[in-house]
Amino acid sequence: MIPGYVVCAEMCGQVIAALLAQQADRRQRTVQFDMVRARDISPAAIAVICGLGRLAEGTDARVAFRWPQESSRARWAVEQTGLTARFGGAARARSGEYLPLREDGAEDEDALVRYLMEDWMGAGWTRMSANLKAAILSRTYEIYSNAFTHAGSRIGVYSCGRRLPNEHRLSLTVVDFGAGIPFRVRQFLRRPDLSSMDALEWAFAEGHTTWPLWPRGIGLALLRDFVRSNRGTAIVMSHDGLAWVGSVGAASRFGSRPGYGALPASSPPFRGTVVTLDFNCDDLSPLRRRRTQPSPRGGGRGGGPLGW
Amino acid sequence: MVKRHVVRELTGPTCLSPEKGQRVFRVVEADVAAGNVVELDFTGVDLFATPFFNLSIGQLLRDLDPAYLRGRLRVVNLNEVGQDTYSRAWDNAVHHYHRGAPPG
Fold it and tell me: Which of A81, A86, A92, A191 is the most buried (most CB within 10 A)?
């Protein structure tokens, strides 16, 4: 996941460099996304590509695509998410594990809930309690709310995800192209020297917010706690800072404590924020329940009220 | 006098966004200002996020003492997620506006 984020940051840097060059010499540029050699493309990358495509279109650049080869996993991904359909390619293939790509210019609670309930969760493929369903949807919404309230993304918020039925997991990525968490924190604390890593750690602490108008600053903490109890994963890339909590992939190195880091020095920063969530979504299957529930006397942290 | 509001009638089945929080805030603020006890009944609401509670209830603590507001506001029929979200949002708002005060 982290290497994939580095690729997204590099792609973002290249597109912005091309657009700045266009602005300087006033010649129309073509920004081409070449995916011919891609074997697989994550929902996070698809959301980022869509946003960068819109960013380029907004500057009058011409946007072109070389789509992945037929029958590759990458091709399924770009067709099932509808990325191809949005940029003049094949119509969206409606079945499969990928969610339709979503673009939002403003916060619309009811539309987002419909998307999360119908397109993301769907029905009939997992055994999920009403309580777990409510917790996943509620905590996921915190990420959307942060993106709309804090980011100031002029080209909107993009999301994409997938269902992994065999693993009983759901994943979702939410991307904005705004100022980024480190910038907001440095500005708020008046500490221009604060590292992105430290800024993200500050932002994850309960009650910490850069928002001046009313109390905020518990959304990330609630998400962090839920991810722990659900044994899921949350990974945040904002500018050159990274934060992760959970049990999958790179995040597992840190166990239940959030980890903070930075993109490699050779990588450009990402001009915005990418949040990828990965949740366990089967808490009713007897086999899985036996394996994951704490003992009746144990009272372990894994069995919190919103977890398993 | 107790004024009872069925929140679902104001917001629909989800209480997530600041916009819906502001909608509920306007109702509650007016009732509390008139000296009423307000009961917010969350029957039929399934999803909850902190922006909703920050605006609907957290904002009230800007001008009101936490203990006074506790006596004026009854929040009933929250599901598990709602109760957890509400408790954390309440404590955070008390800390934000009344640093050092007990949660009320």
Answer: A81
- Residue A124 lies inside a defined structural domain of this protein: yes
pLDDT band at A291 (very low <50, low <70, confident <90, very high): very low
- The answer to whether residue A253 scores a pLDDT higher than 60 is no
Which residue in A115, A141, A220 has the most chain B C-beta atoms within 10 A of its own C-beta, making it the best mutation to test that interface? A141
Domain assignment of residue A306, yes or no: no
Q: pTM score, two decimals?
A: 0.87
Q: What is the mean pLDDT of chain A?
A: 84
A307 lies in some domain? no
- What are the residues facing A170 on neighbouring strands? A163, A279
Q: How far apart are CA B4 and CA A290, in angstroms?
A: 43
Q: Domain tally for chain A?
A: 1
Question: What is the percent of chain A with per-residue pLDDT over 70, rounded to a whole number?
Answer: 87
Do residues A1 and A235 make contact, with C-beta atoms less than 8 angstroms apart? yes
Does pLDDT of B73 surpass 60? yes
Binary contact (B85, A222; C-beta < 8 A) = yes
B22 within 8 A of B57, measured Cβ to Cβ: no
Q: Does B24 touch chain A (CB under 8 A)?
A: no
Of A110, A113, A305, the CB nearest to B84: A305
**Which residues are A241's β-sheet partners?**
A238, A262
Interface touch B14/A214, C-beta < 8 Å: no
Domain residues for the domain of A76 are 4-301
Closest CB from B14, B81, B96 relative to A109: B14
CATH code for the domain in which residue A103 is found: 3.30.565.10
Vertex A58: Cα angle to A39 and A237 (nearest 5): 50
